[in-house]
Design goal:
Layout (H helix, E strand, L loop, with lengths): L1 H16 L3 H6 L1 H14 L13 H7 L2 H11 L27 E7 L6 E9 L13 E11 L2 E9 L8 E2 H9 L3
Antiparallel strand pairs: 1-2, 2-3, 3-4, 4-5
Length: about 180
């Protein structure tokens, strides 16, 4: 019995030391923080808006590549009149208006090619009476990688227009930085 316990402990230690295998367990951490803040932003109370792309979050929760693209997009004078964000909408709820988020789920996929896809689903329009897509489910996909010893968000894929594929925020930021 003691040999089995030692072998099992050794196997667990060996598997946890392999790169990529630990990523799946930790991949949801930066996404969960972003979603907590997004939920607070749309909670309906009068609390201050939490900038999910603030400098502290960019350096802690996002990859260097994502952060660099975001900073370049913010520099475009046409980015946004308030000078805070290159987007004129909330990229997580994929709109300018939303309700308190309902039925939120966060699911982590298996690591592949150095990244783990974390899928978030929620309802964002449940309080909008008379809206045909009131109960529609919004899906956001986060590509999470390991960088400098921590898991970080490398891209956010939001739903595109009907019939079109998802939109990469990194690609959108490159276009914004170019003035497109």
């Amino acid at each position: 019995m003691k040999k089995i316990a030692v072998l099992l402990a050794g196997l667990v230690a060996a598997l946890s030391a392999l790169p990529g295998l630990s990523l799946a367990a930790d991949a949801t951490a930066p996404v969960e923080e972003i979603m907590r803040d997004t939920q607070k932003n749309w909670a309906g109370d009068d609390s201050d808006w939490i900038d999910i792309f603030g400098e502290a979050m960019l350096s802690r929760l996002y990859s260097h590549d994502f952060s660099d693209k975001y900073k370049a997009a913010v520099q475009n004078p046409a980015a946004d009149e308030d000078g805070i964000s290159p987007f004129d909408y909330d990229v997580i709820v994929n709109g300018q208006d939303a309700c308190p988020l309902q039925n939120l789920s966060i699911d982590s996929g298996q690591p592949a090619n150095g990244a783990t896809e974390v899928t978030v689903k929620f309802k964002a329009a449940t309080c909008m009476e008379g809206t045909p897509d009131k109960d529609a489910i919004t899906t956001v996909r986060f590509d999470v990688i390991e960088e400098d010893g921590k898991t970080v968000i490398d891209d956010i894929m939001i739903q595109g227009e009907e019939g079109k594929g998802p939109i990469s925020l990194k690609e959108a930021m490159v276009q914004i930085a170019k003035g497109e």
